[in-house]
Specification:
Layout: H1 2-21, H2 28-41, H3 43-51, H4 55-65, H5 70-89, H6 94-113
C-alpha cells in the first residue's frame, strides 16, 4: 500500500509542478494531495513538502486553518479569467461557455470565501 501512496504522491507533486507553470492546471490542490499521500508513504517526502520554501507555507496555512493567501487568491482569479477569455477568443459554443461560467464561478466563490492567511 505504501508503494501506491508513494506513486500517487509523486504523480500529484508532478501535476502541482506543471500547474505552477501552466495557468490551466491548479497547483495547490495537487500539493495538498501530494502532502496527504506522502504522509502515508514517505516521511522524507512529507517533511520536504512541509518545509519547502515555496510550497510549505501554502500547505501549512491550509492544514492549520483552511486559509489561502491573498496572492494565491489573486493568481487563481487571474488564471480563471484567462481560461474563460481564451474560450471566448476561440469561439467556444454557448453551452460550453455557460458550463464554464457556472463551474468557474463556483470555484472562485470557494476560493474567495476561504479565510485569508
Amino acid at each position: 500500500m505504501r508503494l501506491l501512496y508513494a506513486t500517487l504522491a509523486c504523480l500529484s507533486l508532478m501535476l502541482a509542478l506543471i500547474g505552477a507553470i501552466l495557468p490551466l492546471l491548479p497547483t495547490v490542490p495537487f500539493l495538498l494531495l501530494a502532502t496527504f499521500f506522502s504522509a502515508k508513504s514517505s516521511e522524507r517526502l512529507h517533511n520536504w513538502l512541509l518545509t519547502h520554501r515555496a510550497f510549505g507555507p501554502m500547505i501549512q496555512d491550509w492544514q492549520s486553518s483552511g486559509a489561502i493567501r491573498p496572492a494565491a487568491k489573486k493568481a487563481a482569479t487571474l488564471s480563471i479569467a484567462a481560461v474563460f477569455l481564451v474560450s471566448l477568443f476561440f469561439g467556444a459554443p454557448v453551452h460550453v461557455l455557460g458550463i464554464q461560467a457556472v463551474v468557474l464561478t463556483a470555484v472562485l466563490t470557494f476560493i474567495w470565501t476561504r479565510p485569508t492567511a
